Amino acid sequence: MNYQETLDYLEELNKFGTKMGLNRIKRLLELLDEPQLKYKTIHVTGTNGKGSVCAMISEILRQSGIKTGLYTSPHLYSYTERMQINGVAVSEAVFANSISVVKTFADQMVSEGMESPTQFEVLTAAAFFCFAVNNVDYAVIEVGLGGLLDSTNVIIPEVSVITNVAFEHAALCGGTLEGIAHHKAGIIKDGVPVVTDAKGMTLDILHDEAVKKNTDLFIEDVDFQAKFIQHDNYEQEILFTSKLLGVSTEFSLDLLGEHQVRNSALAVMTAYLLAGDEQRITDGSIKIALENVKWPGRFECIDVKQKKIVIDGAHNPAGMSMLRQNLDKYFPEEQRIFVLGILKDKDIKVMLKTLLRPQDIVIATTPDSQRSAAPEDWAEMIDVKYVQVEKDRRQALTKAMGMTQSGSVLCLTGSLYLIGELRHVLLYEIKK
């Protein structure tokens, strides 16, 4: 299959929806000769921040001279973004070849009388295969949903990371925060150290699981922490300390946001744990990595046509809360103009109440998803300075850009399906 044919195939697999369970992915990987066992891995889950942590760990490994694979989801603009080697998305040809190989065995499974693998299972198997044939040394693997029954939960990692636990995807993860925590804890393996930023009851659940699995749990603010020192334009200075490790070091992080301070603590702690057996990881490579790490669409600050723009994929109440905190910190006085699109299966009322101030301006639009919430419905819920519904995403961006003048900041947010497309327009069409 060529690239377009692989996209058609993946779209066809959408009809199977999201199905939890590991039987299909285990059989698929067995037919592929267990590619996920041919390199070392780091496994990352959590409600928010897991993508950023994955990007930081991947960059640390890469800057340490280690050939590194990175598997994340969803993508912002192209499916190829989900599979990266040494910080670069694979080519369309490599992506298509990996999917084509997996399709052969997926078809065999169906002929054997098994259910067809889902889209995410095919993508996961393709990433594992791609990393194996390209001889990576390590792969950083982001969980798709939950953890316990997620398709990625077939690896035995060197370190497991659980960023935090908040209320999302409850219907598929037990219906309660406690149930979600149990699903996140499902990635904990026997003897594999765990790094986490979980708090309260959810931390207790992780602790209990770590005891059962006879493994060490390293807790942010207890065993290690990162502290914001200052920021200079779009870079912040951070102090990482761990009395447990006897470490105190400052570094620059090329990502803004209070949440990225905490995310960097998780990544650095993971790196120090890996360094126990991996001598290529040094203080120097960690510092260089964090100075250079990029993670598009997560409080990403750019200037386009002399306009300040923030692109943030906040898509749940916890993400909106962090976005609001960061806007208040870095842009406290600016007039805020939002291009906002939300999916209908989200807690929309809470998200809007958390994010918006009475003096804000909102252009309500439609993310490129079948799950998109009708903007005219939720726009009626908000009481702000000005709100306008513009269902056409590009027109919404154009109108918002026209409103963004000196002393104001434009923020694109609400859904990754929205910001991915508009980010591409900004960087590759408008900014030219």
Helix count equals 14
CATH superfamily of the largest domain: Mur-like, catalytic domain
Strand order of the largest sheet: 4-3-2-5-1-6-7-8
Strand content: 15-25%
The CATH class of the largest domain is Alpha Beta
- What's the average pLDDT? 94
Which overall shape is indicated by the principal axes computed on the Cα atoms?
globular
Radius of gyration from CA coordinates: 21 Å
Number of distinct beta strands: 17
Sequence stretches where pLDDT stays below 50 over 5 or more residues:
none
The CATH topology name of the largest domain reads UDP-N-acetylmuramoyl-L-alanine:D-glutamate ligase
The quaternary structure here is single chain
Q: Estimate percent helicity.
A: 25-40%
Largest sheet: 8 strands, mixed
* Structural class by secondary-structure content: alpha/beta
CATH architecture classification name of the largest domain: 3-Layer(aba) Sandwich
- Ends apart, CA distance between termini: 33 Å
Estimate nothing, just give the exact number of structural domains.
Answer: 2
